[in-house]
Structures are given as C-alpha cells and as structure tokens.
Amino acid sequence: MSNTAAIARTMAQNRETSYKILFIIGVCHLLNDSIQAIIPAMFPILEKSMGLSFTQLGLIAFALNMVSSILQPVIGMVTDKKPMPFALPIGLTFTLCGVLGLALAPRFEWIVLSVLFIGLGSAIFHPEGSRVAYLAAGSRRGLAQSIYQVGGNSGQAMAPLITALILVPLGQIGAAWFTAVAAVAVGLLLYIAFWYAKTLETHNALQKKPNKKESANQKGLSKAIWFSLVLILFLIFARSWYISGMTNYYAFYTIETYSFSIKQSQIFLFTFLVAGALGTFFGGPLADRFGKKLIIFLSMIISAPLTILIPFVPPFAAFILLLLTGFILMSSFSVTVVYAQELVPGKIGTMAGLTVGLAFGMGAIGSIVIGYLADRIGISNTMILTGFLPLLGLLTLLLPSDQKVNEWNS
C-alpha cells in the first residue's frame, strides 16, 4: 500500500510543471545557439577578410549543420535507451573548443574543422535538452517546449547584434569572447545534469510498470504514422530552407538592393529573428489550446504571402513584413517537435533529434543550394525564389488531427 501511495505521489508531481528547470534549460539553449549564431554572423566579415565565395560560405554552414543533423537523431536514439544526463555539459565543452578554434583559424579549412566541433556539441545538447524540457513539462508540453525552444531562437536572434557590436569592430578574433559564454553554459548544465539524474531515478521506478504506449511502439509504427512523420519532416524542410536563406544571405540582399552597410543589414535580420523567437514562445501555448495541426497550418499559410512580398517592397515595408513573417512562421517551431513526440511516444530524444536536427540538416543543404543559386543567378532572384517555400505548408492539411494522433496512442 505504501509503494502504491509513493507512485501516486510521484505521478502527481510529474504532472506539475517545473518552471525553474525550464528557465535554466532555456537559458542554456540561448547560450548554446548564440554561439552557433556567430558562424553565419561572421559571413560578411569572412567574405571580406578571406575572400570567400558564397559557395564557400554555404560549405561552412553545411559543415556546422550537417554534423549536427546527422548526429542528433543518433544521439537521441542512444539516449532513449540509456539517458545520459552528463552528456549535456560534455557537449558544451566540445562547443567551447570549437569557438576558440574559430577565433584563431588562419584558413578556410581550419574554420570548417572548428565548426565541426561546434556542430558536435550542438548534436549532443539538443536531444538531451529537449528531454529535460519534456521531463519538466508536466501536463503543459507545448508551453514547456516553447520555453526551451525560445531560448534557442533568442540565441540565434542575437547574431546581428553580435556582428554589429563585437565582430565588426574586433573581426574574427572577437569570436573568442564566446568561450566565456560556453563556460557559463557548462556550469549551468552541470546543475541540470544532477537534477536530470535524480529525476531519472523516479522515472525508472515508474517504468517498472508496463507502459502501454511504449509497448505499442515496440510492435512497430503503422503506415499512417510513418506517412505523418515523413510529412511533418517535409514541412520542417520547407520552413528551414526559408529560414536558412534569410539567416545566411538576406544581409547580402539588403546591402546590394538597399545599399545598406553591414550594421544596417543586421538590424533588419535582428528584427526577423527576434520576432521569430517571440513567435516560438507563443506558438506552444496556442497549440495546447487550439491544437498542434491548426497552428502548424496557419503559421505557414499566413506567412506565405508575406515572404513572397518581402523582396519587392521598399526598406520600411520590408522591416514590417520581416517582423510579421518571423513571428508567424516560427510560431510552429516548438509545435512540430511536440507533434512528432506525441506521434511516436516513448521516443522523446529520437523525435527531438529528428525534428530539430532535421531543421539544422535541411538548413545545411539549403545553405549550399541557396549559396550556389546566389552565385549563379544573383542574390535578388534567389531571395525571390525562397519566398515561395512557405506555400508548401498546404500539405499540413494531409496531417492527422490531434484527436486522431491521441486515438492511435490510447
């Protein structure tokens, strides 16, 4: 009887949302992704100092994002079987080494090697960070994932400020400042790791009782679930290519089209990314209330006309459209992660690795393709073409409803 009461008490605690842990892991996500953000933020500087082509810049982004995207699902699958709380601070240590190498790299090849270390650190951090958010979520998974993901998107949004305040005046060596950022993140993740390990003990005790959802997954996924999973990943592909094009190349577009300086171009990009971070935060709670499929659909379809218009309007109108587009398009960022996790329950790390990792991976391929297009047809025409990508959001209509997903896993 006492054992039953203890389990009941633990289950009640698990339904509570641990905002302290969510806040800390969100801050760590911000620090991790702000470090990653210095790489595309340095593109205009590297293009001038080393004479790199758009294709070479795309290869740098490819090296960063592809390593992360390939390893994230792999690490997620491994940690689904055996969670590793202390992998979090270890991963950020790899990132610390990579950012120091980036600051000191004398040639293109050394830059690529350094970003590989940063990509490895990211691959370790993201699946386990998402699992921490899941464990701390209680019954508010959309909100929890939004708090976690808004940290990352806020870190990415800092790239233009980093460029204007640090990298433009200091140049490449300015990246060395971010070794201190990485060190702070390692310290915070040590605290998270101890909480994570303690929480796992409780969850392991609960898992002694059979879990119907996990037992169902062991039998294999149905064709309907496979189709839905592939479709949600394709939608992430469309969104990621657009975000990659804006993050890596929109600064060059404003410099060419509006005759902006590097600092002026970063203000526009900062607007887009900050609005995206805000959209990420609000998307999760909206999905908890109105449904995940609806939010995913609306975020892409409403943003599509805006993304198509952006290359054709004057600077002030572009500023407003960037603000709206960032908020609306990125409102589905955390929602797609939760949708995939509920589509395949019991595989928290794997689904986080696939969805977030795929976003990096598709962004990596997009960087290569968009960089190549910019070299071939010009940056203006390339920006016009990328504006049509969110129209692929119409495919969201083929996804099963939230109620259907719950029925499959009940």
Automatic annotation (TrEMBL):
Concerning SUPFAM superfamilies, the annotation shows:
MFS general substrate transporter
What organism, scientifically named, is this protein from? Cytobacillus praedii
- Entry keywords, A to Z: Membrane, Transmembrane, Transmembrane helix, Transport
Q: Per the database record, which ranges form the Major facilitator superfamily (MFS) profile domain? A: 21-405
Subcellular location(s): the record lists: Cell membrane
This protein's major location comes to: membrane
One GO term describing the cellular component: plasma membrane
Please report the record's description of how this protein sits within the membrane: Multi-pass membrane protein
Instruction: Report the protein name in the record.
Output: MFS transporter
Any one Gene Ontology MF annotation carried by this entry is: transmembrane transporter activity
Pfam families (alphabetical):
MFS_1
Where do the TM regions start and end?
A: 21-45, 57-79, 86-104, 110-126, 147-168, 174-197, 224-243, 267-287, 294-313, 319-340, 352-373, 379-399
